[in-house]
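Margin note: ligand = nicotinamide-adenine-dinucleotide.
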Amino acid sequence: MNAYAEPPPTRCLTSVLDQQRKAFLSEPTPDVATRRTHLARLRHAVLAYRREMETAISADFGNRSRHETGIMELVSVIQAIDYLSRKLSRFMKRERRHVSFIYQAGRAYVEYQPKGVIGIMAPWNYPIALTMIPLATAIAAGNRVMLKPSELTRRTSEVIHRMLSEIFAPEEVAVVLGGPEVGADFSHLAFDHLLFTGSTQVGKKVMEAASKHLVPVTLELGGKSPVIVSRGHINQRTLNSIVFGKLSNGGQTCVAPDYALVHEDDLDRFVQAYTNTVARFYPDGPTSDDYTSIVTDGHYARLLNLIGDARRKGAKVIEGGVTPERAATRTRTIPPILITEANDEMKVMQEEIFGPILPVRTYRTIDEVIDYVNARPRPLALYYFGSDIVERDAVLMRTTSGNVGVNNTIMHVAQDDLPFGGIGPSGMGAYHGIEGFRAMSHAKGVFVQGHWSLARLLHAPFGKLAEFALATTLRRPGKNVGDRNFVLGR
Ligand code: NAD
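Resulting structure:
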């Protein structure tokens, strides 16, 4: 049966939300054992459905190897579930906070309480990892979940729907299938938190819709992530990592290096080394079973358009070790492409590429690189390859990006204990690590008054104690006020 045939009407979505909220209120704080059971159920189901998901994804894309699905998605999901299960008691633990002298003998602590019902909206490019990791985080934090996967990988979304319906009741986890219209209705629901992964353009609409009910959002968006190669640092390790990050999933990765900044003296060596490395990764060229196709005809046409636009505007287009004729023998396959002499007038330097095309810009000084990055929207990831610590620190300290990889690409996403997210146009908030658990929990501050309390002595009528409290807390600053132009003291 095609689960997409009849998209749910808005009132249906609202009734699922009401049902989930009711269930949440009847059991608002699931204990650690219940949450672990939910995570274990999810883990078991993902492994049981492994082959079905690999097949569905490959059919959705046109081609994607089961190894790539395993390495880039399933391993991350299982790793994230295990991480959350392991850390859960620590994450859920009440956190003691400082109480200042005049509020003694009180106690202050933070309780991380489930928020309630979390909405999760996902894109198509990693349709398992980008649904299952947010889902695992939300249920680890004790929430109910409504999940809307992408319509562009509909076979995979249907498998996810079936899998989750088998292991969770609809008031625990509900999957909503449909396209942009359903997405728009979904984003208007009065969730307790909404995690959206997708394009910056749709992210803005989703945030606007969420604002109607003041729903807090985590936005995991896209952008142009630069890879900076330090002068003279063209070596096999660097190239392996850049080619891996760029060409995995046919370049359709949010944190893929979007463009490269290479020293002008290194350009020829970089081009040669990139081309050789591509040929080593994919000896059969883009018809290799290991090389992923482009997800839809529309995305394929957009990428061809980027290449044509760059060529027309004077760029040099180099096919990475394979010929386009061979690529043409398989559905929606674009060979790995390097673009040199790219300039900012070209679309390839303006839009997020999201395909196997790497434009290369040259630089003379690292300051030029830093200025170039800072003149553009803050990226989701920034990569630096080099061994000059001073230069590396200059790049890290003077640029702002969601995350950074040093001498590697995309591996930061696999670090379960690191927050993952963007900044500005590349996103808002983060998940993974304790940050993900906390994003889906309410940090409720609680102050418990002690039996004996100094603060009570400060009530009217005021006396000596109030004088003492004011004198000690409002005393003049010491010497350490910093700026010598600080002229308040009279
Ligand atoms: P998209 O924004 O088109 O779609 C994402 C989700 O939003 C889908 O479920 C879709 O059905 C829904 N949607 C589409 N139009 C909508 C609308 N008008 N209102 C509400 N919902 C709507 O993104 P995509 O094309 O699926 O994914 C590619 C983008 O996602 C790229 O920009 C990529 O960088 C980004 N991305 C980011 C991350 C991250 O973790 N930061 C990860 C993967 C992809």
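The chain has a mean pLDDT of 94.
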